[in-house]
Amino acid sequence: MNQEQLVHFREILNNKLNSLINEAIKTVDTMSRTEEENFPDPTDRATLESDRNFELRIRDRERKLIPKINQAIERINNGTYGICIECGQEISVKRLESRPEATMCIRCKTKEEEFEKKHNI
Ligand SMILES: [Zn+2]
Questions:
Q1: How far is the CA of 57 from the centre of ligand 1 (A)?
Q2: Where in the chain are the dksA C4-type zinc fingers (predicted)?
Q3: How many CA atoms lie within 13 A of 77 on its CB side?
């Protein structure tokens, strides 16, 4: 991967990290606000509960994704970005464009997913 590409991916990763953090702050903010509100109508209450489940799922996704993106930025810094941690081959730029935090090439990732599915992980 050349310098230009590294700069490009660093920018993508930084943007993604910023928007995830903003999203997380917003989610936490919404949750603490709804806790203070009172819902006497049980229908409203149910709606709120399902909304909250949705927010919790988003938080879970952010919680998992933020460290991955931080690690990817770290890998740009130490010169190992874009190299598959499994087989040591270069991860395709096309894959990194859609998953800039990817640590594995598509072949190893597919293998891992098949393994997880088979062993119910
Ligand atoms: Zn690989």
A1: 29
A2: 84-108
A3: 8
Cα(74) to ligand 1 centroid in Å equals 19
Q: How many domains does the chain contain in total?
A: 1
Ligand 1 centre to CA of 76 (Å) is: 18
**Contact assessment for residue 55 and residue 27, using Cβ atoms and an 8 Å cutoff:** yes
Quick: pLDDT tens for 16-66. 999 998 888 887 777 776 666 665 666 666 776 677 777 777 778 788 899
Domain of residue 28, residue span: 3-119
Say how far apart CA 73 and CA 79 lie, in whole Å: 10
Partner residues linked to 83 by β-bridges? 90
pTM reported for the whole predicted model = 0.75
Structure tokens given for 70: 């931080």
Say how many Å lie between the CA of residue 88 and the centre of ligand 1.
6
Q: Tens of pLDDT along 75-90?
A: 999 999 999 999 999 9
